[in-house]
Amino acid sequence: MRTMWKGSIQFGLVYIPIKLYTATENKDVRLRMLHKDCMSPINYTRTCSKCGKAVGNEDIIKGYEYAPDQFVPISEQEMNELQEDVDKHIEIINFVKLSEIDPIYYEKSYFIGPDSGNGLRAFSLLKQAIQDSDRIGIANIIIRSKQHLAAIRSFENGMLLETLYYPDEVRSMNEVPGLGDLSVNNAPKEMDIANQLIDQLTTEFKPDQYKDNYRLKLEKLIEDKVAGMPTERKKGKAPQQNVVDLLSALEASVKEAKPKPRRKTAARSKKTV
Question: From start to end residue, where is composition biased (Basic residues) (predicted)?
Answer without folding.
Answer: 260-273
